[in-house]
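Example S7 (structure tokens).
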């Protein structure tokens, strides 16, 4: 259950970063919003990757 909540939070962070990047093109404040949006996208993706369970396939 905790992993599912962590994945949902990671996806929401990534979506907010993507929205910040798109709003930067609308407001033309590229130097502030684009790096912050990209950092949020990377934080969200890394959170989802950290929450996913990697199965051990030992033979």
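Recovered sequence:
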């Amino acid at each position: 259950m905790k992993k599912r909540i962590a994945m949902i939070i990671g996806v929401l962070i990534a979506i907010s970063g993507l929205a910040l990047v798109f709003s930067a093109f609308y407001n033309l404040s590229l130097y502030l919003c684009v790096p912050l949006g990209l950092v949020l996208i990377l934080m969200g993706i890394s959170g989802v990757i950290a929450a996913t369970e990697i199965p051990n396939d030992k033979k």
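Notes on this example. The chain has one domain: 2-51.
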